[in-house]
Structure to design on (634 residues):
């Protein structure tokens, strides 16, 4: 009940600040039914508006339903006085008339007759006449309706009413109708014939029999219930449906409208956990007790890398802080300074999974001070970061990186992975063993090609090494954001060795003008991550060929620079390369490989020599040119 109570509080705050008008709601409509003054169907016109979407990198224009402000109505089974659903209005679906659709139309006729009695205006008169005289069976083949039924969305779209030639004046805006609607409206109105004590407010009053549907992203067009007690095991004292929930009609309207408001404004308040065959089945909603704060934008950027075209000053400050922290954790004082008055506000995180077309279930609900949540999120992201990365890793990218790119979506597996990452971000601060193991397994399967034409493959590799780095930090390993030459983990050293040898080979080939289809890393990376001895001894045996190439083109200085790094690494390895690496050492191998590669690519200041003390005593002509060449190659 806590989450429903908190959603009711959110509704109260939204209403107080004018974000929600209890009597009205914003809704998307696709068509307008045009009536003659005597109530005859004259036309059904589209009110959709163009919307540009990007699919596969290409821009495509589609026409989508347009938002209108209309009266608040229940998205359930009952007819509304201003009906928007095709089956209630016309008593049929696209293909035929059925007993079910006729019953819906009868309910609609009754609701309109009762509510509009005594109300008169040209549009109201036309509406009443149309509803009263429309015959679902006789008028099924009406030419206008028959042509409209050819539209694939005819019986799923929503409809508005106007007089012919005047689509700008809609029935919900008719002054006479609005006057009655606003004077009679009450949030306590709803489907109930049972009174009791509300489990949310503690007040005695009507208990909601059915709860309004939640619609929007993930929940779908038709919507689904957020709470349900319709199972036999939930029934007691002869009560069924949601009477067993003990949620009053008022509280029910509040929490459902708060949820629908966030889903309507989903870009600010939500994140979809993952995509499944074009649909999502899990969503995270987040909000503060105060309305219109910058907290939601900061949170969504830190954990989901959501783009914000108009970032606030505080969000930019958090980004700057995130960029500056290269090693270790962000202190509480750092964040307090940046967040200011946002530090102590209460922040809510609600995870919901849509189990089927009719039901949604709460998977997790967390409430805490925004400062605490942001501190954990920042530190979690820093555990993932390499070097001078300037963007956080989104949950979606972490999950995608450890799932085979060709695999069909598996809801159970993905939910488990997502939940494990959630726990790492909110509680542990580091990736758990189960996720790290999958990252290693996937990397062993996919390998790594530095010159891979598909950028996605490279990014997947980088993301998996970020996962391994976070895991290693959680294990207490001596892993830093940048290359750590003091790290003596055998896996880390083996990864560094392969990275330097691979770069040496590429440099030798480039200077000698020779090409190879595959580099050391292409051929031996996966093998070296589990059995370094088998792979790296082969690599070592081929290094003399690189030396010969450097000598042929008189680039001994470059060779000496690479060779000195290899000697530094090998000097830390006792008894040669090992025949086996355990899970932690394999993770360290990949992290060492990536960090060494990044260090080789990193641009040095002009005053810094790329040739260390081991090669400074050698006679190398034109050292400056050698440095430039190495920089260009790496």
């Amino acid at each position: 009940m806590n989450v429903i109570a908190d959603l009711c509080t959110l509704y109260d705050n939204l209403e107080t600040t004018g974000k929600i008008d209890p009597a009205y709601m914003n809704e998307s409509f696709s068509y307008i039914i045009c009536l003659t003054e005597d109530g005859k169907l004259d036309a059904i016109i589209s009110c959709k508006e163009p919307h540009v979407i990007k699919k596969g990198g290409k821009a495509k224009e589609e026409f989508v339903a347009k938002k209108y402000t209309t009266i608040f109505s229940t998205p359930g089974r009952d007819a509304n006085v201003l009906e928007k659903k095709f089956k209630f209005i016309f008593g049929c679906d696209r293909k035929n008339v059925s007993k079910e659709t006729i019953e819906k139309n009868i309910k609609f006729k009754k609701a309109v007759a009762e509510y509009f009695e005594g109300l008169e205006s040209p549009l109201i008169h036309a509406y009443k006449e149309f509803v009263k005289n429309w015959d679902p069976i006789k008028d099924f083949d009406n030419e206008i309706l028959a042509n409209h039924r050819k539209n694939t969305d005819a019986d799923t779209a929503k409809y508005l009413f106007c007089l012919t030639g005047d689509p700008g004046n809609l029935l919900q805006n008719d002054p006479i109708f609005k006057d009655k609607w606003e004077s009679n409206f009450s949030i306590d109105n709803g489907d109930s014939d049972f009174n009791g004590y509300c489990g949310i407010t503690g007040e005695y009053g009507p208990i909601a029999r059915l709860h309004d549907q939640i619609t929007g992203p993930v929940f779908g067009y038709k919507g689904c219930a957020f709470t349900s007690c319709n199972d036999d095991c939930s029934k007691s004292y002869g009560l069924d449906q949601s009477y067993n929930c003990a949620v009053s009609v008022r509280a029910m309207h509040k929490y459902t409208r708060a949820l629908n408001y966030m889903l309507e404004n989903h870009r600010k308040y939500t994140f979809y956990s993952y995509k499944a065959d074009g649909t999502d089945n899990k969503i995270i909603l987040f909000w503060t007790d105060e309305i219109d704060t910058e907290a939601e934008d900061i949170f969504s950027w830190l954990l989901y890398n959501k783009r914000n075209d108009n970032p606030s000053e505080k969000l930019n400050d958090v980004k700057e802080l995130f960029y500056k922290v290269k090693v270790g954790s962000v202190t509480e004082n750092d964040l307090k300074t940046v967040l200011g008055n946002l530090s102590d506000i209460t922040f809510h995180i609600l995870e919901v999974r849509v189990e089927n077309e009719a039901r949604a279930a709460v998977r997790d609900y967390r409430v805490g001070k925004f400062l605490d949540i942001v501190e954990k999120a920042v530190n979690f992201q820093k555990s993932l970061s390499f070097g001078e990365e300037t963007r956080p890793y989104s949950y979606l990218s972490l999950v995608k990186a450890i799932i085979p790119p060709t695999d069909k979506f598996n809801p159970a597996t993905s939910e488990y992975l997502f939940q494990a990452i959630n726990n790492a971000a909110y509680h542990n601060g580091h990736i758990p063993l189960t996720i790290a193991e999958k990252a290693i397994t996937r990397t062993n399967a996919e390998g790594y090609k530095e010159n891979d034409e598909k950028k996605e493959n490279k990014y997947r590799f980088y993301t998996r090494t970020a996962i391994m780095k976070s895991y290693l930090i959680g294990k207490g390993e001596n892993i830093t954001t940048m290359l750590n030459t003091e790290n003596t983990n055998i896996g880390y050293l083996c990864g560094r060795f392969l990275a330097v040898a691979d770069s040496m080979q590429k440099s030798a080939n480039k200077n000698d003008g020779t090409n190879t289809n595959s580099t050391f890393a292409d051929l031996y990376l996966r093998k070296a991550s589990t059995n370094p001895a088998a792979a790296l001894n082969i690599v070592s045996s081929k290094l003399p060929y690189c030396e010969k190439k450097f000598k042929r083109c008189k680039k001994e200085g470059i060779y000496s620079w690479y060779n000195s790094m290899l000697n530094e690494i090998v000097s830390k390895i006792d008894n040669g390369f090992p025949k086996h690496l355990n899970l932690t050492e394999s993770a360290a191998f990949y992290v060492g490989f990536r960090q060494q590669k990044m260090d080789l690519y990193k641009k040095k200041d002009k005053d810094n020599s790329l040739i260390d003390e081991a090669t400074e005593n050698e006679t190398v002509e034109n050292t400056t040119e050698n440095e430039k060449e190495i920089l260009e190659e790496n």
Observations:
- The longest strand covers residues 360-369.
